[in-house]
Amino acid sequence: MELKGLHHVSAITANAKKNYDFYTKVMGMRLVKKSVNQDDTSMYHLFYADEIGRPGTDLTFFEILGAGHTYPGNNSISATSLRVPDDDALDYWLDRFNEFDVENGGITEQYGRKVIHFKDHEEQRLVLVSDQTNEGVAGGNPWAHSVVPEDKGITGLGPVKITIPDLAPTERILTEVLGFRRAGEYASDVTGVSPIQVYATGEGGTGAELHVEVRPNLPKERPGRGSVHHVALRVADMEELKQWKNLITKERLPNSGVVDRYYFQSLYFREPNGILIELATDGPGFATDEDVEHLGERIALPPFLEAQREEIEAKLKPLDTKE
């Protein structure tokens, strides 16, 4: 068994409409699924991705109305990267961010790649990373109807950074249980902090890395709008997911068991420093219940929730995504 890379990252927003406007009209991503949190159907679950929502390209958001401010800290998923094709694309994005008053740190370098650290309107901690030198997992294809030119568009998820107080227990889970390998390190931009450790899986590269920052003296993060709920990793299929379940259970890591998310099958568990990790299958995908040309235009519900559609829709504030 070998995890293939990043599958998706799920974060929190306090306002679905403003979230939709930012990620489609500024970031140029496609809303490939407008659904609900299957564990709490009173809230939207929005999926932004490449043209068809390929595994490894999804950034998703749960709408929690009234979610408070995030107080960044330890035991957290502290940065999410989005891939762009090359260094020239970063020049385009720097101009675009300045045009739309998006807070950013300019073009810098991280782990031998050019990047732009930036924040969305809710202070979600994000990084654009250039795939100029990537030789690992291939990215997806930007949507042809995006407001961003295809050759500059976001092609998927890049490295996800976690911040923890103690490296050893997390490293053991990553390397001895999940099969990640230590791939390198780079200097932190925080004075006095140890180098950030890079772990890779599968083909490696920008689409298959977790970056681990160790901050023993940092307070625990207090999540809110702009915080990340969990990171999901790619599993080939259901048969392999069952094998992962057996392994995770054997390690005595409390887990959800296999959960049917309809668009993929999942298993959730927390590693010792409290990071919520999901293992998710590559299929069947988002075109299962919608035509590819019309993804994300209506509220999509898995079959086991369809009978509750009227009740579910009555609780949600209408969100026009056909624009």
Main sheet properties: 8 strands, mixed
How many domains is the backbone divided into? 1
As residue ranges, the low-confidence spans are none
CATH fold node name: 2,3-Dihydroxybiphenyl 1,2-Dioxygenase, domain 1
Number of strands: 16
Shape: globular
Give the class from helix and strand content and strand pairing: alpha+beta
CATH homologous superfamily descriptor: 2,3-Dihydroxybiphenyl 1,2-Dioxygenase, domain 1
Rg of Cα set: 19 Å
Please tally the helical runs, counting DSSP H or I stretches of 4 or more residues: 6
**Terminus-to-terminus distance:** 42 Å
Q: Work out the helicity level.
A: 10-25%
Write down the secondary-structure element order. EHEEEEHEEEEHEEEEHEEEHH
What is the strand content? 25-35%
Q: Mean pLDDT score, rounded?
A: 97
Q: Strand order, biggest sheet?
A: 2-3-4-1-13-16-15-14
Second CATH tier, the architecture: Roll
Topology, please?
Blueprint: E1 6-13, H1 16-26, E2 30-37, E3 40-49, E4 58-63, E5 76-84, H2 87-99, E6 104-110, E7 113-119, E8 125-130, E9 156-164, H3 167-177, E10 181-186, E11 196-200, E12 209-214, E13 228-235, H4 238-250, E14 259-260, E15 264-270, E16 276-284, H5 303-306, H6 309-315
Parallel strand pairs: 1-4, 5-8, 9-12, 13-16
Antiparallel strand pairs: 1-13, 2-3, 3-4, 5-9, 6-7, 7-8, 10-11, 11-12, 14-15, 15-16
InterPro entries: Extradiol_RC_dioxygenase, Glyas_Bleomycin-R_OHBP_Dase, Glyas_Fos-R_dOase_dom, VOC_core
Keywords: Dioxygenase, Oxidoreductase
GO molecular function, one term: dioxygenase activity
